[in-house]
Design a protein that fits this description.
With about 425 residues, the protein is mainly β. About 5% of the residues lie in helices and about 40% in strands. It is globular. InterPro entries: SOCS_box (IPR001496), SOCS_box-like_dom_sf (IPR036036), WD40/YVTN_repeat-like_dom_sf (IPR015943), WD40_PAC1 (IPR020472), WD40_repeat_CS (IPR019775), WD40_repeat_dom_sf (IPR036322), WD40_rpt (IPR001680), WSB_SOCS-box_domain (IPR051983).
């Protein structure tokens, strides 16, 4: 069911200079702070013209972006904002289809003129609802998962293929062009799957298991298991929470945490080699988990959501952060998502709110652009035999990143960097 009634309000921004604005959910006082209020997932449409977030209690709100457009504020135009009632708590959502990178040319955000934009919502009861964004109509439901649908991804190839991951320990690949026919079920995880992502060339799926501590790679072409990157070598107790491929597909970032630290591992998905680890230690045992991470559209930065700060921005290979918000134990962050054109990161919280943060903008160097273009179509195995100087080969295969890095300790006065 679709409704155009306003379910949220724009809240005054705090003193944090990085915060652009905050959307707060309107709900009865009796529901505030109770289970079911969480914003587990947020997403921008491929062209950046729409933003969707799970508001809690089975409601998804879809709004036209940018939120502060003059036409929308003075009421001269119908913004087309709407909410979808899913009937069960929403844990994952994704816009699609997503055009291939060659077609995703940066352009001013504008609303789509056709009815092809879909929104997939993954529910607590295992059902996936597919919505037509512009009409607000449910297209069909996908049945098959037997647990919470935790994550959804449309590959960046323009097709109506949908990848889903669930607490039932499986991933499923659906063909929405065939009315949601299940193409393949991928089994191999031993417990809940926290997150999944698809490489830019649409050849690989990565998934992380929260409790089984597996980082699995799967072939999206043959629907087969490739390898488990972790191999079960780490003996300390920890949990995996998130993963993301770099835009060129040459890196896979995974997020994990234990009682005394959180860390991000950077992997080469082709060779299964761990290239680098960023680690943060803390004194309050069990009080600072890492919830989400995502590469920026140009691949220069990683957005990080943790319990003690609403947002950090890290440049892989560097010690410390390019930008970080105020230290705040009540930030309650759960998820993050970059705008397709960069410059803005949206984060969702446990209390059902959404915050939009100003992310650092940086012009990529010519070296970075050349590496990104090359690695988008050339694997590490194809790179290594090339007769290139050692330093150039190390740069092109990301072997120039220091193996172990620590986040810089920051004082309470260090409110925002970058």
């Amino acid at each position: 069911m679709c409704s155009t009634e306003n379910n949220a309000e724009i809240a005054p921004t705090s003193s944090d200079p990085a915060l652009i604005l905050e959307l707060k959910t309107r709900r009865p006082p009796s529901l505030v702070g109770r289970a079911g209020c969480e914003t587990w997932s947020v997403d921008f449409s491929p062209d950046g013209a729409w933003f969707a977030w799970s508001m809690g209690h089975g409601i998804v709100w879809v709004v036209a972006w940018p939120l502060d457009s003059e036409d929308g504020q003075n009421g001269e135009t119908d913004r087309g904002d709407k909410s979808f009632s899913c009937g069960h708590p929403v844990w994952g959502l994704a816009f699609g289809p997503r055009p291939p990178k060659s077609a995703a040319v940066a352009r001013p955000a504008k609303r789509p003129s056709n009815n092809n934009l879909l929104l997939a919502t993954g529910l607590e009861n295992g059902v996936i609802k597919i919505w037509n964004v512009l009409t607000g109509i449910t297209v069909f439901d996908l049945h098959g998962h037997e647990g919470v649908v935790r994550d959804l991804v449309f590959p960046q190839n323009g097709t109506l293929t949908l990848v889903s991951s669930s607490r039932d320990k499986t991933l499923r690949i659906w063909d929405l062009a065939q009315k949601g026919k299940t193409v393949q079920v991928l089994s191999g995880h031993k417990d809940w799957i926290s997150c999944c992502c698809v490489s830019s060339d649409c050849s690989m799926i990565a998934s992380v298991g929260r409790f089984d501590r597996m980082v699995c790679l799967w072939s999206l072409r043959s629907y087969t298991f490739i390898r488990n990157l972790t191999g079960g070598t780490r003996k300390t107790l920890y949990l995996l929470s998130s993963c993301d491929f770099s835009p060129d597909g040459a890196l896979l970032a995974t997020a994990a945490f234990s009682g005394s630290s959180w860390w991000i591992d950077l992997w080469d998905p082709y060779t299964a080699e761990k290239l680098a680890t960023l680690v943060d230690y803390f004194e309050d045992y069990g009080q600072n988990q890492i919830s989400s991470l995502q590469f920026s559209p140009n691949g220069l930065h990683l957005a990080i959501v943790t319990d003690d700060r609403a947002l950090r921005i890290w440049e892989p290979g560097k010690t410390g952060m390019v930008m970080q918000t105020k230290a705040d134990r009540d930030s309650n962050g759960l998820c993050c998502n970059y705008h397709p054109q960069g410059g803005v990161v949206a984060t969702g919280t446990r209390d059902g709110h959404v915050r939009f943060w100003r992310a650092p903008r940086r012009v990529p160097s010519l070296c970075h652009l050349c590496r990104s273009i090359l690695r988008d179509s050339v694997s590490t195995h194809q790179m290594e035999p090339l007769p290139l100087p050692k330093r150039i080969l190390e740069y092109l295969t990301y072997r120039n990143i220091p193996e172990r890095l620590k986040t810089c300790p920051s004082s309470e006065e260090e409110e925002w960097e970058g």
